[in-house]
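Contributing new records

If you add data, match the layout below exactly. Sequence lines come first and carry their own label; structure lines follow with theirs. Keep one chain per record. Anything else will be rejected by the validation script.
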Amino acid sequence: MKTIIRWSMLGGAVGLVVAAIGCAETMTKWESKAIPEAQGKVEVVDGKSMQSRYKSGGFARVKEDFSQWRTYAYDDNRDVPPIKKGVMPANVKGDPKEGRKLFMSRKIGPCTGCHLIRGEDVWPAGSAGLDMQNFADKKMSDADVFQMIFDMRQFYPETIMPPWGAIGMVKPEQIVHIIAFLKTQTGPLPPEKDPRRDPRTREKSAGFGDNLDPTNNPAVITGEEAIGAWKKAGSTGKACVSCHGDTPAKSMKGIATGYPKYMVKYGRVMSIEDFLEVHAPETTGTAMPSQSGGSAAMSILVKMQSNGMPVKLDLSSPEMKAALARGNAVFHKKVGKRNNSCADCHSKKGAAGTFLGGRPLGDAAEGYVAHFPLYRTSSGKIWDVRKRFQWCMLPLGMNYLASDSVEYADLELYLMSFEQGKPLSVPGIRH
């Protein structure tokens, strides 16, 4: 087996554009110091290109390399896929059964992740898109429906619907089958046997109880046990306690409320985790790379000392203002094979407030990052917000960036800005 590792724009030396006063820009670089699987490197194994990803959970299930699709990297200046008009095949007879199978296919979407159709087997259906249970009653022409599925941007340039045909995920003859199926979605609706099937009548999850109760959230214990690492000397003979005292409750109180923040020494915005990654080895000689267990535990320990205190970001400096603007741009940038942005799912102009399959989509403007790191019940692991960013990238059909990348730091700052004045509550707990 022959393996070649190459730095891509995703995880190695990522360009940071720092907007200064006026139109001047300077370029600096940040080389990832995260654990290997968090760096987003692209490998060539036996002539086949692939991204080196986490080996656990859903990350390991995604095998495809998405290098051909644009990313959030600041030096990735590729355009979105061009808008295309498809050619509807004239010699294909639509098969409704095949069309429904395609509509339900997880390899494609499934389409039911956004659109509700008839059938008790449709579970869970989303509401980010149009309810299709009576779609045929709209009496739209086959030609128009074909073009809408092929590339909806021909009609609505700002659509959140992927350009299925233009990106080659759905073939023209498959669209003909889907159209034939959609023609069956007509007439009176049968009585709904289970209100949970329909996103309009489905109850949203009630949550996981008190996230700061250690009997409910194992991550609380992880944070408390990090006091051992706080007091343990590294290779330099120093420990956190050497500079910050025995009780982080006193020395770290209020510290986390100001992060992410611009660090002059490093020329970039940093989260607590970003700072620990460089500060720990520089002072104590202890490695604390992004996405390591030590980083997660120490981050929780530090942040817990500010629980209940309001977020208080200092956004007054030119550097922080520029980073906030870049984070906003990242949030709204269309990326990946599916040509979607964070805003498509998590803003009121997008699908916020609806269901993507069985998952309710939150509005970023309401703030939901002040409880990271958190314990994920689905995997039994602690995730910080960067790993959550990386997790979101794969369904978009985009190789994720390094967890300690500048792009993710700016995005985290943008999302944290919605938490201004709201209390920290770390660690959180989610499924």
